[in-house]
Structures are given as C-alpha cells and as structure tokens.
Structure prediction request, 483 residues.
Amino acid sequence: IGRAALGNAGDPDVLFCNNLKMVLPQTEKERKAHDWAKKKQPEAVIEDYLRHILLLESDEAISFKTQKGNIDGIVFSVPHVWDRAMDHAGRSLLQAIVSENLKLPLIRLISEPVAAAAYYAFAYREKSAESFTGNLLICDTGGGTFDVTLCRISPGKVEELHNDGNGRVQLGKAGVCFDQRLLLNAMKKEGKPENINDPDFLELYVKLQEYKVNHHTNITKWIKNAIDDPDLREKAILKAGKIKFDFNDIQEAFKEIEVGIIKVLERVKKAMEEKKQGVDALFFVGGFSQFYLVRETVKNFWKEKLNGAGDNGRSNQEISRFAISYGAALIANDMIQVEEKYEHTIGVEGYRLVPDKKPGEFRKESCNIPIIIGGKKLSEYEKVSYAQFPVKAHNESPDIVLYVDPESKGRIVKDKLSKSLKIKLPNVGLPGNQWKLGMRISRSKVVYLIFEDIQGEASEYELGDILRQMFGGLEILVGEEQA
Prediction:
C-alpha cells in the first residue's frame, strides 16, 4: 500500500493494482483495459485491503487485534462522482463488500468532500476557539476526478448545497491525466510507443510517483521560482528515472487539467449566482490538490470572479491531508451532523386507462410516476416516499420500467428492470388489488423500490446496479465533454 506498493511495482512477481476507486464501478469489459484487473477482481483487492488496514482477526470476529472491543460502527468516504454520475455502481458494490462479505456494521457511505467539510468545521473551532459559520467550497482533486462541493457550515452541522465536477470520461482530467500526459509527451519526444500499458511507461510512472512523494516540498518551491523567474524555466523540477521535466514540460501537461478545472468553476459560479450564494472560504483536499498549479488555478479564479473570496489561511494545508478520513470519524461518532443532497429524480413508468373515441372503450396512456424528486435533502427519503396515486398489479411479476432524470436536468432515461420483483397478490375477498408504490434511499444513497399492499405488507427491491445498467452502450457527448 502506498510507497511500499510503488517500491515493488516493477517486480514481476508482484501484482500492482492502481486507480482502484475508478476501476471498481466499471463493467467487466471496461476493467479489461487494466492489466491487473484481468488477474484479480477489484472487489477482492478492496476486501484484502480492508482486512489488512482494519486488522480483522477472522471472518467471524470483527475486531481490532491491537485494541480492546469491537468495531461498533464504520463510515466509509467515497468519491463524490459516485453520486453525481448515475452510471457508477461503486456505492452498491462497496456496500456489499463491507456489509455482506466482511460483516462490518456499516453506518453509511459519505461523499469525500462532505466528510472533509465536517473536519474543517471541527479543526477551525479547535484552532480559533470559535465556530466557522458560512459557505465553504471544497475542491477535491484526486487521481481521477476534480469535484467541487459547496457546503453551508453552522455550529455542529454541515449541509451540502451544490456540487459539480468532472471525471466521468475514463479517468477524467486530474492527477492521473497529468502524469500520463507528462510521460507520454516525453516518450513521444524519444520516439517510444505512446502506450500506458507499455512496460516502459509503467516503470516511468512508478519512478515519477516516488519522486513526487519524496520531493514534494522542493517541487513546490522550484515551480514558484520558475513562475517568478523565466530564466529558471528550463531547470529540472520533476524526474522519472533518467527523464527530467522542466517548468515548460509541466505547464504543457497541465494545460488540459487547467481547462477542465476552470470549466467546472465557471459552472459552479453560474449556479451560485442564480441561487444568490457566495463563498466565504476555500478548502483543498485530495492528493492532486497538493500540487501548486492546481491550488493557484482555483484561488486565482475566485480572486478574479468573486471579489477576493478565497483561502482563509487558517487550517488549510495542515489539515487537508487527513480531512476526509478524520471527517468520516467525526460523522461516525455523531460529533458533526451532516445533511447531504440527493440529486437525481427517479420514478417508474405506468399507464392509465382513458376513454377512447368509441363510447365504453378505453385506451392505454403511458405516464411517468415520479417518486424521488432530485435536489432534496437525503434525510427526506430515509423513510419510504410514496407515489401520489396507488397502482394496480395484474400478476405477481409485473413489468417494471424505471425512469431516471440524472441530476434532474430534464434528460430522462428509461429501462425495464432486468429482474422481476415478485409481489404477493391479495387473498381472495380482500377489497381491490391496489398497491402503494414507494422508494427510499439509505444513508449510503442506495435506492430501494417498495410495493406495499393494503394490509401494509411490503416487498422491497434494491435497485443498486440497475441504475448503472440503464446507461450502458454508447453515450454521445456534446459541448465541453465531447471527445
């Protein structure tokens, strides 16, 4: 794990697994693009990792080897793109690994930026002896994604207001993209194949990671010097084995990431202006957010666009490395209350009988039955939310067509559930064949469909991966995401 993994990545007897969080939600076909995933499933890697990091003694005894007592509850932080993109199956897969395979007492899955905001609020109070109250913009830049989340912070509480980001297309425009672009540009200059699966590329990739980790402070200093003094822009700043990269090389590789960051921030700025929301402070989390050019791009954007609102300098860098995990711990122990949003609108397709042209004849008219309305607080859907009108089921396995409006932008996608939800029809003599149709969302943002009969007995179906399956095939990208 970490440096130990990088140090052994070149060993032919070692299976080097990287980009794990991005690979987990992918289909079997997509996973084949990663050589290691052909040999071991990401689910198995994650399970092995959790057994190691939590020091689990056995399959049956869920406890720490080095501490007294059991794990009474556990909170996992996950990338926010797992919320925003409906084609991510990460939440349902991780929930199954944690709850079913490892039998851990899962409290919830929490979005990484929201967890970071919880720790920011806690650390601010610890350092200044007063509570931070206002809107905090969390910029979470990792290997595969750039996520921006606006949270309203008040004493003891964090409420998610708005979010945006990129990272749906392959590994997005973040740390991995930068590293790949830097190395591929260098290999092109040397006439080598521009292939990320080439052994030479992997060897350079590992050496680049080692150098960045070991020389982070100096790299930041050298970049600042090169910005201030053009004469230093041909001096080596980064190294991958014998290959050296100067400021010009770094700036060229960063261009694509910078464009992606600014496009996201422009969308966020527009949405905030429409809602009359402001920014009182910035907070950077995620490994690639430690990169100087990332931070400066974000801070310069807000300085120009929002009258100088920016990094308040209190506890940013010193707490950002552990903010996500510490925030998850605070949430697990009820020390900070968090309120997340659910962005997507979900319902089912039904039909009603309407009079036809001829008297006494009727025809079917299809209609959408909304149940989950996107943009509301997650807590509103922890209990079952029911459709406005009851439905009638004609057999025990009715055809169910789900409709989803991702991020509630009016772009509806429909698909039939791949598995039948068997429901228990009423006994003979009971009045009518009416059902209440409902949905609920767990605190981990996993959606369930519920049929409830007139006696109050319910049949529940976890939608989980069906939401990802609905977006299979080719997606035509337009505008900024067009490939």
In short: The mean pLDDT is 82. The first helix runs from residue 3 to 7. Residues 353 and 363 are 6 Å apart (CA to CA). The chain has 15 helices and 20 strands.
